Amino acid sequence: MAASASTPHTTDFPAEGRCSYYVEKKKRFCRMVVAAGKRFCGEHAGAAEEENARKRILCPLDPKHTVYEDQLAKHLKKCNSREKPKPDFFIQDINAGLKDETEIPEQLVPISSLSEEQLENLIKKLRKASEGLNSTLKDQIMSHPALHDALNDPKNGDSATKHLKQQASILGNIEKLKLLGPRRCFVEFGAGKGKLSHWVDIALKDAEKVHFILVEKVTTRFKVDGKHRKKNSVFERLQIDIQHLCLNKIPLLSKEKLPVVGIGKHLCGVATGSLLLKKRRK
């Protein structure tokens, strides 16, 4: 990451008690809290002259963060990415599809490596396999009044506006399908910070007996679901890969027996950009 720790690139200064490391990519200072008497957070401590003698390395469990080499053993015992006991709703590969070894190719190859003839044969096979399917997709770009004020906030940048429009469209589609209502459980797949569930909760106002289950594979910072304290809304976060998630064994779902609405704004992998809308009754 290209960044400068010593000379700010803007006229701003780091907030009091916050890291003095300037993140060039984000055009701002790091917002992590620093220890008393320090200028940099643990992640960027290597930028401080007094810390140069100690080497920081990538965490072997999650290369998205670093750790002091001489504290690696201690860090591995408490790292958020360490192996944890599996909950009851973890069932290995339950959503991975059938694994028929006779149908799995010995070696997967990228489409870009296929010859023109091989690519044409693949297209023919796909067209034949999809015959009779209603595969015409129609854009359903909508909006929802719950996001009206947020969408018209003059402080929004291009990125914030884009995400708000997507969330408003998803809410509009959920409402059109008559899935936005009380006495149900919304399961957000690939929840990230939980903003989609946040707006669903806002849209439902004081609807009774509404539960939210936020499913995310990795540890997420700046989560918004922790801010919700409404009496009629319950938020629960599950850190698990969807590949191994068994909804029937989630205690809240098995206990409450509520209809389930599956939602998602962005799922990494083959489901990237998908919108899941599904209702299940027991």
UniProtKB/TrEMBL annotation:
Keywords: Metal-binding, Methyltransferase, S-adenosyl-L-methionine, Transferase, tRNA processing, Zinc, Zinc-finger. InterPro entries: Methyltransferase_TRM13 (IPR007871), Trm13 (IPR039044), TRM13/UPF0224_CHHC_Znf_dom (IPR022776), Znf_CCCH-type_TRM13 (IPR021721). It comes from the Eukaryota. GO terms for biological process: tRNA methylation. It is an enzyme of class 2 (transferase). tRNA methylase which 2'-O-methylates cytidine(4) in tRNA(Pro) and tRNA(Gly)(GCC), and adenosine(4) in tRNA(His). This is tRNA:m(4)X modification enzyme TRM13. It comes from Panthera pardus (Leopard).
